[in-house]
Amino acid sequence: MLVNKDRLALDRDVGEWLHTALNIAKIRLEPVSVEIAVASTRLPGELHPDPADRLIVATARHLGATLITDDQALLAYAAKGHLKAQAAAH
Question: Radius of gyration of the chain from Cα atoms?
Answer without folding.
Answer: 14
